[in-house]
Amino acid sequence: MKQGVSIEAKAKVLDLRRRYSIREVADQTGLPVGTVKTICSRSGAFRDNERLRAMCSLPPIRVSAETLPAAPTLPQQQKVTGDGEIDAVLWLRECISTGQAVMSNRPATTVFSPKFQ
Question: Which among 9, 37, 86, 96 is placed 20 to 30 Å from 111, CA to CA?
Answer without folding.
Answer: 37
